[in-house]
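As a warm-up, study this chain.
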Amino acid sequence: MHLQQGAPNVMTTEDTLPRVLLVEDSPSTALAYQGYLAQEYRVRVAHSGAEALAALEAHSFSLLLVDVRLPDMSGLEILDRVRDQDPSTPIIMMTAHGSVDVAVEAMQRGASDFLTKPFDRARLRVTLTKALKERRLTEIVAEYEKSFEREHFHRMVGASLPMQSVYRIIESAAPSRATVFITGESGTGKELCAEAIHAQSPRADQAFVALNCAAIPRDLLESEIFGHIKGAFTGALTAREGAASRADGGTLFLDEIGELPLDLQSKLLRFIQSGSFQPVGASREQRVDVRFVCATNRDPLEEVRQGRFREDLYYRLHVIPIQMPALRERGQDVLRIARALLAACCEEEGRAFADFRPEVEALLLRHAWPGNVRELANVIRNVVVLNEGTWVEAAMLPATFDALRAGSEPDRPADEEPVPDPAPASGGASIMQGDAGEATIEPLWREEKRLIERAIALCGGNVPRAAARLEISASTIYRKKQQWEQSAV
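Now compare it with the structure written out below.
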């Protein structure tokens, strides 16, 4: 069964008109309706249910106009068949024996609208236009949700607001040639971000070459990036193609770029500016077409201030910045990533874990994750390798969770202030003294508002981080803030 997408617009050729399948057993009535729609639609007529089903198998249609009573079956059966194949296709039922019961049943089974015969040209055209516009709006909403509420983007997992922002920047930047500078703590997924940029770009079918500048000895970095000829230095027994050559036509990702020595930074700057480089020991330059993406876990501007990173190179590279959020700032993404890792590890190790116990989920959400996703992957691998079962239990988590299991305050980075429990303060206690000295009770929402606002302030205005520390989702905070603003009006 083929069902065509789209709604009517200003049409210029017959091929671009929406296709309508009219299922009507009366030839004269079908001819009249076909005439009503001829200018705006391509109409195919079926005089029985069998003809209609055969047409649906052979052709695609934007909309169906179906009589309830047919010689060989009920139009409601056709409605059910189409609904099973494509629930979004508009279906308008029509009958000369209109009744409330039939109309209600048709709508309950998924009909878009209901027409009672006889009806005129205007009524028919308005009904069809309305049905197709509603379908188009549904498609737009679905696309919006797909773009702005995604749980996956290429190999990245996450539906939190910080990650939605990352996805949107990638989609905007990927089609261009602009250099992207990714920052973030170690283990936040900077290389996955770079891969996504490449996969979204017009270079997706070309090479993606990743080079970790921190993992290569400094005296070999130039050769790794630009390559060398035979005999260029002691041990160079053969010529070697560098990452720049291998990435020709594609993307070159330089991870931990802050580890490059200053003399090599100047050569990289010239390469970025000119698109050409000279392999070690060679006398001729080589020209390539490369899109640059780089990353560092350091503050690049601070590196410039300290003289460890060239300012001119920084501005050449820092065209489109992307900040990868720390895992502790991503709320429920911790559990989404943990489940993805659990499934992958179980497949690799031959284990049968299905999910986490609720108490394990609570521990995973409370942990500060200083090592970010890399630390989470380590924990999940540890659990899967050393244990068996259907559910991950709290006792299976490694020793780093002992304090949390005992009910202590979760670990946090040294530079992060704790969010304190609410304490009585001037004008802000849950229990206050009334005019006669009696204790009065503050509404719960006011104390909750006070605690959330204090947490946001302690986290420097970072709502996702405050949400993670309060062990709630960022969307909950945004919803409550909206409620407070509305109640204040």
